[in-house]
Write a sequence for this structure.
């Protein structure tokens, strides 16, 4: 197991999704089995059970006693402690969160508690999804039939073409003051 010199990602409520991905990558970089320790359980160091014959083509296994561990076995067995230490360090700035997970026995328990706190239970997730969908529907309103949208757009274009047309449809009306000025001034020209 090699130790990583990378900075441990800190958990935050605002960026939980990103933090979770960074944490998975960080732990996997430390040891391939680290994520298994977190998502499944602490590793059990096993040995073949020589007292039983091979059944179904596979040998039977027993858990090794601690005094039988090799150096590699000790490192694998210690992964739960290493992962727990890393998870504790990710919560350095959040003392309130640490108090919620400090009684957890394994890193799997810690991780499940963090996921529950940050993501919520399945019921909470479902409620959040329902609320988000309702907000979206309220903001956008009911969706009209697309055929009606096309008809309304055509009517709006037709109205726009009638009112915004640059050509004149009738003669310009001249006020009485304009008529008097034209007569007095003797200016020729006709009416536009």
């Amino acid at each position: 197991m090699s130790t990583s010199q990378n900075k441990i990602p800190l958990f935050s409520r605002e960026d939980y999704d990103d933090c979770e991905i960074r944490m998975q990558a960080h732990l996997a970089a430390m040891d391939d089995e680290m994520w298994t320790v977190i998502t499944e359980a602490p590793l059990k160091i096993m040995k073949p059970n020589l007292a039983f014959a091979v059944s179904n083509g596979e040998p039977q296994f027993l858990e090794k006693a601690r005094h039988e561990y090799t150096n590699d076995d000790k490192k694998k067995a210690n992964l739960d402690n290493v992962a727990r230490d890393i998870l504790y360090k990710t919560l350095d700035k959040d003392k309130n969160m640490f108090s919620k997970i400090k009684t957890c026995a394994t890193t799997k328990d810690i991780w499940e508690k963090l996921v529950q706190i940050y993501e919520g239970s399945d019921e909470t997730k479902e409620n959040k999804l329902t609320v988000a969908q309702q907000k979206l529907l309220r903001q956008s309103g009911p969706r009209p039939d697309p055929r009606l949208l096309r008809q309304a757009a055509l009517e709006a274009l037709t109205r726009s073409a009638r009112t915004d047309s640059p050509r004149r449809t009738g003669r310009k009306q001249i006020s009485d003051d304009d008529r008097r000025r034209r007569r007095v001034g003797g200016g020729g020209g006709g009416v536009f």
